[in-house]
Structures are given as C-alpha cells and as structure tokens.
Amino acid sequence: MWAAADETRHEIVGRYRRTWELAETGRQAGDADILREQLDGSVGTIPARAKSQPSPAFWDARRSEIERIAKAASATE
Known about the structure:
Layout: H1 9-21, H2 23-40, H3 56-75
C-alpha cells in the first residue's frame, strides 16, 4: 500500500478497508493466475514471449524515492 504525503489518515484508512474487502477476490484471482502460469508460462502481466523486467537501476531509484518520502513523513510527526 502506498500513501502520498498529502493524503489524510481518513483517506488512507478508507483505501485500506476497501482493499481488505476485496481480499477474497484477490485470493481467488491469485489461484487462477497460478493455473494460467502453469498453462502458458506467463508471469504477472508480462507475456511469456516478452519477459523483460525493470532493471536493477529502476528498483534502486524506486527504493530511494520511497525512502525519501518515508523520511520526510517521519520528520513531520
């Protein structure tokens, strides 16, 4: 779950509750996804024939962004 710096606690909790209500649907979809992966070899939303994944540099930048925002949020508490 991702929260933006300008979101209120009410918005964040509301999104959490809506997501929680869909948990059973997500579990069922996960089961269907496992079966699909076994049938056609696709993983997630990436077709089996194009298994390109984000680069390590992408994930380093993403982690840095999340850490920066987390530190900024903790400084305001």
